[in-house]
Specification:
By secondary structure, this protein is an alpha+beta fold. It has five helices and five strands. It has one domain: Arc Repressor Mutant, subunit A, CATH 1.10.10.10. The longest helix has 13 residues. It is flat, with a radius of gyration of 16 Å. The mean pLDDT is 92. The structure holds zinc ion (ZN) (2 copies). The site of one zinc ion has 6 residues, from strand 3.
């Protein structure tokens, strides 16, 4: 596999921080270790990592995509004011209802959009 080193660096970077990063942020960080990597390679590897369930993507309301190396169940809150993305624990009740109905869940994505507490308190 041609992209193994790149893929590993991207995943290591995303797992090293509890932050949600754009492809360009990933590119800037990984380029410090792999100076010859291209933005296209970063996008391609992010796509593969997503397909393999190694990372998750969160879309903001203006369609910017951020990547998260923490794939354990959590819901996202995207602030339309400061554009920060917040993690919240995911409650299992809905998924349990789905499973009880005899369905199988392949993937799950819970994203809330709105204003965070800081943005709400400043006018
Ligand atoms: Zn905010
Ligand atoms: Zn997250």
């Amino acid at each position: 596999m041609r992209d193994t080193v790149q893929r590993r660096e991207i995943l290591t970077f995303l797992r090293s921080r509890r932050q949600h990063c754009s492809a360009v942020q990933v590119y800037d960080a990984v380029r410090e270790k792999l100076p010859s990597i291209s933005l296209g390679t970063v996008y391609r590897n992010l796509g593969h990592l997503l397909e393999d369930g190694e990372i998750i993507a969160v879309e903001t309301s203006d369609k910017c995509v951020y990547y998260d190396g923490f794939v354990q169940d959590h819901a996202h809150f995207v602030c339309d004011g400061c554009k920060n993305i917040f993690d919240f624990p995911l409650k299992r009740e809905i998924a349990q209802d789905v499973i009880k109905a005899g369905f199988s869940i392949e993937s799950e994505k819970v994203v809330y959009y709105g204003k965070c507490a800081d943005c709400r308190s400043q006018k």
